[in-house]
Hints:
By secondary structure, this protein is of the alpha+beta class. The chain has three domains: 40-190, Roll (Ubiquitin-like (UB roll)); 192-225 and 377-593, no CATH class; 613-738, Four Helix Bundle (Hemerythrin (Met), subunit A), CATH 1.20.120.
Amino acid sequence: MENASNPRIQAIQTIQGRQPRKISLPADESGKPLRVSEYYGQNTFHLEQMKQKLPKDVFQKLVATVQAGRKLDSEIAGPVANAIKEWALEHGVTHFCHWFQPQTGLTAEKHDAFITFDDSMRIIEKFSGSQLIQSEPDASSFPSGGMRTTFEARGYTAWDPSSPVFIMESTNGKTLCVPSVFLSYHGDSLDEKTSLLRSMEALSREACALLEQLGEKGVKRVLPTLGVEQEYFLIDRALACLRPDLIMTGRTLLGGQPPKGQQLEDHYFGSIPARVQAFMSEVELELHRLGVPSKTRHNEVAPSQYETAPIFEEANVAVDHNQLTMEVLRKVALRHQYQVLLHEKPFAGVNGSGKHCNWSMSITASSTELDGDNLLDPGKTPHENLRFLAVLVSVLKGVHEHAGLLRAAIASSGNDHRLGANEAPPAIISVFLGDLLSRILDEIEKGAGKERGAEAALIQLGVSKLPEVMRDNTDRNRTSPFAFTGNKFEFRAVGSSASPAFPVTVLNTVVGQGMAEVRARIKARIDAGKPRDAAVLEVVREVVIETKTVRFEGNGYSEEWVAEAARRGLLNLRKTPEALAQLDTDGARKVFQAMGVLSGAELQSRSHVRLERFIKNLQIEVDTLRQMVDTQVLPAGHAYHGKVAGQVAAAKAAGVVAPQAESLSQLGSILQGVAIKRRDLEKAVAEVDARTSEEEKAKGLSGPVSTAMIELRRACDELEGMVADDQWPLPKYREMLFIS
Length: 740
Ligand code: ADP
Ligand code: MG
């Protein structure tokens, strides 16, 4: 007998009637389908279109501005704004906004209509140069970690011309979005984007200087490149709506394990369900029209888990495009009656979601051209090989010296559930290089060919054979947080819901610092009379030895690695509070200042904002769990207990043996267990509430409070296993994960 008034059972019935959502695909007048290349970028105003719409001199100035990574000069802002406005109006756009990335990890926008009164009080559409360049949102409620109160009450947003403007479509209208940075009036960075751009500048500067030291003159710009793999879960909206935890926190705080999880490994790369496929196609269509080069899609390891990845782009554009990807995933999911879960760990017991940041550096003539020379590509000549080694050890140096910063950059309440949970890289930052490269570095360490000169050494090392072998780099290590994969590094420990901006900012900064160090040492040797190649090789060797402890080729999920890492003196910062403390060190301040990426106050604001967010997220989780237990779990348990008790009493009255007697006593003790754990949570929370410092609160929440939450959950999950299925109000794991 199914309880038809149970909303959970109604939701399952609703889902059974769902069909894949059909949309009309782009076609020409005769109905012939368009190719992607024919509508790609339709909703963005990129340089190619600007060229057609702008006077030649204005266009040239704009290109120069973009290439130099500078702010737009007010002299050309007027004509550029006008061209953008005309283009937008042709596309039916009514509003514009500065689209920026405050330190919430999300994007923010405030819309203004184009309309204004002209001199004779008639309505016209207008978009001035100053509106394009700058805007002043009333941004006092964005997190600033104390920055604005220290310096200035308000901030402003400014167009970042290196990222093209785009049109966001919604059901009944369109908005022009102007990708912007967000600054205080003193120029302090209040957002994620400013520091990213500064770190790109720093990396470019240091890379060019290193190249010059290596004898490569005249390189003006090196751009970090980024390709972001985005993992997510997709579950039916009818079920998600019945889970207060998913709605409020993005993850399930309760829920018993299903009989089948991911142990059959039948989901990974399996065929994509029809409704999901329809969803993905619409996501890709929107992304392509926005000029986001979405490329791959597939199932991931856990049931109902998927991944999408674009073709890599210059880092700041890739960051914007990842934000757009997350936004489009969320929006399109709702149209398909799905809820997308970007949280790092929506379900206990199955894999969590990450955001692999594929990163490299490219010598480019312009920011629109990324087929430039990849600095992590070993190349064909001995010189290119030597350059590769110098760059590689610069990366090793940066990561080795500042592993704590990289760990801090990926710290969040969501990622705490993922790192080190035998599914994702551990919280220990190490570098995986693969067999071949490791062997070469080991040979270098042993001093191979030292006597016969650099050229001979390279040949002896087999470095000149690098390119071919690299391209066939098959020994991937999935358990490493930072792995070399042929001609790029893959920073895998980034959380799925996080903006890649800060992790990439830190990476650019520490590698920039590594390059500065390597260059200085080479220079000192050359100044002392050493031939260049020999000097380079010597420094490479020195750094290989210094950074050896950060290299790890084995299984990062194993207990042995945790012990080994401790012996090596590597940091193992398991939880966010400890990780964030790394931002508050002299070493951190020094490197961010030296590279010109963040001032001391700006850095402090990063750690404050993140710690505050961590505390708030956990408090929301605690409150949600309390409410669910008090208003759903316990009432369902008591109601069912009452029902069974009634049956037992009736049997007794009739003088027969009640078959439910055993269940009743078991239920009684489980309910008691829930009540006890519920009180324990209360105690743990009260103890933490009494703490005065934010750091101590955060530690308490990530320690005793989290433990109490897990124990309460265990008791509730046990209850779920006892209550009659049609009396349980919350959608179960087997339903959320397997009904789609
Ligand atoms: P995987 O096997 O990990 O899926 P792929 O070769 O498919 O690796 O690449 C994953 C991501 O790495 C893609 O987004 C791709 O565009 C990106 N990528 C490839 N080359 C580079 C590079 N030089 N710099 C940055 N990202 C890159
Ligand atoms: Mg990958």
